[in-house]
Amino acid sequence: MTRALLFSNSTNHGGTYLGHALDVLAAHYAGVGEVLFAPWALADHDGYVERVAPAFRAIGVGVRGLHTVDDPAAAVRAAGGLYVGGGNTFRLTAALHRLGLVDAVRQAVVAGELRYGGASAGTVVAAPTMRTTNDMPIAEPASFATFGLVPFQINPHYLDADPTSTHAGETREQRLTEFLEQNDVPVLGLREGTWLHLDGDAATVGGTAVSPDAPGPAVLFERGAPVREVTGDVSVLLRVSARWDTA
Q1: Residue 38 phi/psi, 5° resolution?
Q2: Is 135 one of the catalytic residues?
Q3: Which of 28, 45, 157, 197 is catalytic?
């Protein structure tokens, strides 16, 4: 049974790391004494562990950097909990493939043996591919394929267009619409301050968008349909089928 907690962002403005979600974090990792932390989305791995550890200490859970073990894939298969930090999704995905972690994590989570958590880039890689990241390609992964814990794509840090802006570049909505022109698969856009919780056949969007102008926590993009607001139970998305552009 897949159990995953996928944050749009790790830190709200003016807050501490995961300070806005300690209650849901504690519930998700209840009974897990130590969480393995995957720090490869940032360059300073040891520093990243130090940044993340206080949030887990606050809920009574220890943290061990996955970069410090000799065989990360074996460590994942033996662990009860994994948390994947945000940063650059290209760099993270390249490391996951290089270390043989994509299949190892997927199999352990789907089997119900490993509880998965992630934020930002760590949330993107829970989808079938990393193709809805917001990041610059500073590294070249062996593949865009990622964990596939859900059958749809996720776009964290979703930003609504500012109607008063004079910026002439594409909005997030335009970029995700371009993605749908090539790929027929839903995309869930999570606004800052929100998360997606998976528990077996149930999927729930929770949290509160930090922007006072945001109408809700998340938006859903589907080919041939208007963009719509979603909140609460989104379990129907776990049953979608997808068609990918492989050209």
Answers
A1: -95, 110
A2: yes
A3: 157
Interatomic CA distance for residues 8 and 158, integer angstroms:
8
Report the candidate in 42, 212, 234, 78 with the shortest Cα–Cα distance to residue 154: 234
What's the pLDDT tens digit per position in 135-180?
999 999 999 999 999 999 999 999 987 777 777 678 999 999 999 9
| Alpha-carbon distances, residue 169 vs 132, 138, 159, 173, 174 (angstroms) | 17, 21, 13, 11, 10
Catalytic entry in 10, 20, 45, 135 = 135
Backbone angles phi, psi at 66, to 5 degrees: -65, -20
Active-site annotation holds for 28: no
**Residue 201 gets which letter from DSSP?**
T
Alpha helices in the chain (DSSP H): 22-28, 45-58, 72-78, 89-98, 101-110, 121-124, 172-182
Q: How far apart are CA 201 and CA 72, in angstroms?
A: 28
Out of 8, 120, 233, 235, pick the active-site residue. Answer: 120
Q: Is 70 a catalytic residue?
A: no
User: Would you say residue 247 has pLDDT above 70?
Assistant: no
Within 10 angstroms of residue 33's Cβ, the number of other Cβ atoms is: 10
